[in-house]
Amino acid sequence: MPSRASPEPSPAPAACAPARTREPANSGDHGRLRSLVVVLGDQLDLDAAAFDGFDPAQDLVWMAEVEEESTHVWSSKQRIAVFLAGMRHFASALRAAGRPLDYTRLDDAGNRGSLEAELRSALRRLGPQRVLMTAPGDWRVLQSLKAVVEQSGLTLEIREDRHFFCTVREFAAHAKGRKSLRLEYFYRELRRRHGVLMQGDQPVGGRWNFDADNREAFGPRGPGTLPQRASFEPDALTREVLRDVQTRFAGHPGSLDAFAWPVTREQALQALGLFIEQRLPLFGRYEDAMWPGEPWLYHSQLSVALNLKLLSPREVVRAAEEAWQAGKAPLQSVEGFIRQILGWREYVRGIYWTRMPGYAEGNALQASAELPAWYWTGATDMACLREALAQTLAHGYAHHIQRLMVTGLFTLLLGVRPRQVHAWYLSVYVDAVEWVELPNTLGMSQYADGGLMASKPYVATGKYIQRMGGGCAGCRYDPGQRIGERACPFTTLYWDFLMRHEHLLAANPRMALQVKNAARLPAEERAAVSRRAQAIREGRIGAPA
Question: Which of 159, 236, 442, 488 could be a cystine partner for 49, CB 3.0 to 4.6 Å?
């Protein structure tokens, strides 16, 4: 895969949305428009680098809602609504800040349906001297917008995305010359550079990583009373978006009945405060736990606000660190949470922008199965998958263990084409922006990059899901059985996975013992596992109940 550091990028597709008339452009008081500032649906930050030196008398902000950003992958209603509501509220914030705006809505007469077509039209209509933007978070979008601007005889000026702790060039320097990349070393480097949870040159508490303390399950009685979700009643503008999405994208998956995501800067700050106060103290202990009927647990649900740029990762990390300093949250929780923001989030962005576009084509395990159709409906008789999929379709959300060790684990074991898995994740989750979703899906979840991101495939039997509270008690399948009528499909497919990839996995020190265990199975049992796995792949087991 080519390793190419591109100009500085930032999160995802310019969202798609509904309607009203195009706002008139203001070309300023100095004749020809000086700067057209392009803002995408995941760049909702008034302090972004694109606004440096902005002069309302000479410059103009350009935003467009276009259908293609909801249909190039079949986006869920929740995801479309998050981007549209965020964009429309940000348009209001721009007006309040006195920044002239050229804004195209989805139902505007003559809306051309794609970002590149709308930008091409705007360049002809407005005739700016230059076009600039903060680096986007999607390779496809970057390439298409650059091409349009260059075809108009201008050069697209890409400004660094200050949202992140680490630039793409800094990540490329970190990765240069390394045979393999590992989060831990990168994370320590950023902790030192930014002085986060440090005492001099050493980590507070004497340890860099408290991951071993952050794997508890709730036990048979469950989580007990949980804090309420930080939810936001849709205002008039958001209700308008919900109506438009329900009408225009009626055939898309998911539901808008429970829409309550933060879509403004003020709401995002409120969500951050509630997490720090109510959930952070127990976040670390239970960050890998699951429980049926409890989608939120102690997770922050801040990723959508972060990825839309309604929150800065610096203020999120600072708030968590200050909670520890004030004795309001234990170090294991604060470090575990900060590792997700300062460590993992920055790490996957570096992987994406230094490895695209070839990274998206990875398929190290030669997976060729089709994504089960019931991933779009939740109609399966496997309790843990039914729970995770129903929750995803209702809220556009699932926490990281549900994504990695339930929905992602099943597709990995089944052998689904990685590009199909990627398209599904990008479609259904409200926080899905390609720079963060693609490496998490192809690298961490599906091992499609052959181990660049993860030192081994993250595979397990149904016993792991049972141990972490995945709802196995109410399931028709037994996670302790690999063959037979009640054998859990996860468990069957786990052993089949080890047998199918025996030669590849035997060379991995972290997988060698598991491969040896599979090799010890009697020949007749190995054959029975293979037969049942094939029945699962053919949809004869686990299909709609």
Answer: 159
